[in-house]
Automatic annotation (TrEMBL):
The protein's name in its UniProt record: DinB family protein
Classification lineage: Bacteria, Bacillati, Actinomycetota, Actinomycetes, Kitasatosporales
InterPro entries: DinB/YfiT-like (IPR034660), MST-like (IPR007061)
Length: 184
């Protein structure tokens, strides 16, 4: 379950494919960061933060599923504190990294398919109301949701890079360079 290789220069495919390529690239970078871990390593806190690599994989799998439900209209209109998984950002003893990676990849595939099949990236979507939402309803376009997913993956990739480096000294940048040269 190694990351997929970036393809280099992309053909001109239009905004939608360009945006999806950027999201895919962030996912690839994230997968380099978590490649080669054991379940024990994936559960290990290596910084003062509660973040673990397995928890980040689990969280980003859920992020992709939840934003997919916003795009396809199946999201609940309101989500309260009690609806949120208290272990949503941690990999528990009964969970495996392989299982979370499978969920991450399945979420990515479904999310990308929904974006590709969306007839209008400018379609307005009312977001679910969360405990941290502003009082007025938030309305985003499908494009905004896609850009938000990109931001979320990139944001947590940075966290993962720090957690991995503190765990065993592995460098995502070195792994990416090695892969680009055909070494990984």
């Amino acid at each position: 379950m190694e990351p997929t290789e970036p393809t280099g220069t992309a053909p001109k495919t239009g905004e939608r494919e360009d945006l999806l390529a950027m999201v895919a690239d962030q996912r690839t970078n994230f997968l380099y960061t978590v490649a080669g871990l054991t379940d024990e390593q994936a559960r290990t806190r290596s910084t003062v933060s509660e973040l673990t690599l397995g928890g980040l994989v689990k969280h980003l799998a859920e992020v992709q599923r939840s934003w997919l439900s916003v795009i396809d209209g199946s999201a609940a209109p309101e989500v309260g504190w009690a609806d949120l998984d208290p272990d949503g950002n941690r990999m528990t003893d009964g969970e495996t990294l392989a299982g979370h990676l499978d969920a991450f990849r399945a979420g990515a595939e479904a999310f990308d398919r929904a974006v590709r099949e969306e007839p209008d990236l400018d379609r307005a979507i009312t977001l679910p109301r969360y405990p941290w939402s502003p009082p007025e309803p938030l309305v985003w376009t499908v494009r905004h949701v896609l850009l938000h997913a990109f931001r979320e993956i990139a944001h947590h990739s940075g966290h993962a890079d720090i957690v991995r480096e503190a765990l065993d000294g592995a460098s995502t940048t070195e792994r990416m360079a090695k892969a680009a040269m055909g070494g990984e």
